[in-house]
Amino acid sequence: MIYVAIDGNDIGRKLASSYLANRVDNLKATKDLIDLKTRKISDLLSSLGYDVFFCAADGVAGALKADQIDTSSLYQEIEIIGGDEISFSVGVGKSLRESYVALLYAKSTGKARVCEFNFIDGDV
To answer: Which terminus of the chain has fewer CB atoms gathered within 10 Å of its CB, N or C?
Structure first.
């Protein structure tokens, strides 16, 4: 099994900006945009044969019965979905934990990228 953990980047800042500016309309628009993008990512994963077991807030997680995946192609599709509005980071591993650790690594080393758990020790 290959697990993927996907998370939007800097979403908290977008939300905080709406709160601090007292902009209810911006908060609603951000929520709607995040919902749309994560739903599209979930649909993408499902269309590729993944079992999607989490799709909430700005995150999506799923698993595919496979030994390996083309992480570059997957990330390109996710970038297209995010467009100019939202970037996403992706972690890939052979367990849910590994995918999450890889996601944390992706977010802490530049965001808007995909990282595989197997390559964390080296330069990804």
So the answer is: N
